[in-house]
Amino acid sequence: MKLSGRDAPGYFARPDPRRTGLLIYGADAMRVALRRQEVIAALIGPQGEEEMRLARMSGSELRKEPAMLLDAIKAQGFFPGPRVVFVEDATEALAPVVTAALSEWRDGDAQVIVTAGQLKPASKLRKLFEGHNNAYAVGIYDEPPGRAEIEATLAKAGLRDIKPDAMRDLTGLAQELDPGDFRQTMEKLALYKHGDDAPLSPDDIAACAPTSVEAAVDDILHIVAEARSGEIGPVMKRLRAQGVQPVSLCINATRHFRTLYAVASDPGGPAQGIGRVRPPVFGPRRDRVLRQAQKWNVTRLEQALTLLTDTDLQLRSAGQHAPAMALVERALIRLAMLAAR
């Protein structure tokens, strides 16, 4: 039977131990792995693997010894409780083996959890589970988690009191991070909030969210956008000492000003634009970027982006002989002076 994308999260959290099996397939191996971890943990509990109620085998092992699967399904353990046989990285070549094993399945046998990569609708493996009257097949696609799924992840991490603006930031973060990184961020938030009864806030998320640029690079971008040209020299000296590359600095500056442009040019105004930018901006930095976008107008931001594009092209030009970092510093000073107008 097919398990719809709407019903799948609920089933993963509370799977039916009386089912014959479950096929989880998808192009993103990380998303598939997280789902099968969740469903296996829900079936056998935290002690299931220690109690030898979980049998693992890879697709390559099963191709060499096809009888392994049926033997594991029928095996009786020393400990009571549901048992699971997990087949990892299954391919079309295993369809006859899995078909034969499922046909021999009876009540009390181990449930079969199979993971695979992307499968076409005509796949024999996929058709086997979709056509089975006591097994499920579900495709995992590259879609960010919805609000309900995010709330469930937060609840598992022990976080239940969430401010609305914090949930907004988490929804944006979930769209930018891969599932593994997002789950790690949730675990980090849970540790960060341990013993703190205050509701989860955007500042908490900003403290735990992965950062994409070095702090010193972030500093210089704020200095430029806030027209503090006198502070550019000392920070640039620190960036040189840290080994920051001129092209990298120019790319980050362009990214920052594109964000300001997206915020400033939003039809609903900067206050709405700040909530729509991707990647999302969190915590105190969110307010700072909003103030910067309100100070710059769209025309000046277009001039700033043109200047940065020209500088980037100059840095990459084969005929460029001037010191690269000096070119970037001059461009940043010109941007700061443009902001001061």
Automatic annotation (TrEMBL):
Keywords for this protein: DNA replication, DNA-directed DNA polymerase, Nucleotidyltransferase, Transferase
Taxonomy, superkingdom: Bacteria
Uppermost EC category: transferase
GO CC field: DNA polymerase III complex
Segment forming the signal sequence: none
Molecular function GO labels: DNA binding; DNA-directed DNA polymerase activity
Catalytic activity as recorded in UniProt: DNA(n) + a 2'-deoxyribonucleoside 5'-triphosphate = DNA(n+1) + diphosphate
EC number(s) stated in the UniProt entry for this protein: 2.7.7.7
Biological process terms in GO annotation: DNA-templated DNA replication
Family listed: Belongs to the DNA polymerase HolA subunit family.
Alphabetized PANTHER family for the sequence: DNA POLYMERASE III SUBUNIT DELTA
Record-given protein name: DNA-directed DNA polymerase
Source organism (scientific name): Roseovarius gahaiensis
Lineage: Bacteria, Pseudomonadati, Pseudomonadota, Alphaproteobacteria, Rhodobacterales
